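[step 3/7] fold_predict: job queued, chain A
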Amino acid sequence: MVDVARDGSAVRITMNRAAKRNALSAEHLSELLDAFREARTSDAAGIVLAAEGPVFSAGHDFADVHARDEEGVRQLLELCTVLMKTIQSAPQVVIARVQGLATAAGCQLVASCDLAVAADTAGFSLPGGKAGWFCHTPAVPVARSIGRKRLMELVLTGDVVDAATAVEWGLINRAVPADDLDAAVDDLLARATRGSRASKAIGKRTIYAQLDRPEADAYEVALNVMAETSQSPSATEGRASFLEKRPPVWPD
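[step 4/7] structure written:
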């Protein structure tokens, strides 16, 4: 479900679970984590995270989440958090190639990459705010990319923002026509990987160290709350209605 290919000085990691909207099941998260762990130990200068199909990633796989108790959901969220931290701590420049919709933990993936280029038809959302299970952990890296009021709009409304808005808000670097996406990714990656790789790796690590000093605490709080609320009536109903393809009947 994850394709890995070397392309010159870059490793390309592609989510290939299009039939499931590249939803992040435990299996898929583990495959991504293995791919990034292998790529980060290579001599590659950059890593591109991409996806097949019309959706970049729909976030957590509700079928997987719905089958778990609170401790199981906590373990799933911990696995997801390890992946996000592995992406940010990789010595290489990591760029997201976003060809379609990125929601919830899919949006979290984009925000966790160093850089992001999207097709101008892509969209981004943290939809928990309009459903039954709030996007606590996905909001952590998004909060460190955009301003507080814009974050609150995303998490409270659950609305999709288009690629042009995502650029304006600072969630992604640029939006381009879909036909130009690969060229734009390659151009930005080439410019971002020039110079000393060792220096860049140290620079990247230092940048995140100063920017994200509160992040460990933020993840701890968000992970605990998200795990705890995974079993709430509204979260259970939201997942059940999604899986049963029916309108939700909110208990609250």
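[step 5/7] annotate
The two ends are 37 Å apart (CA to CA).
Residues 70-89 form the longest helix (20 residues).
exit 0
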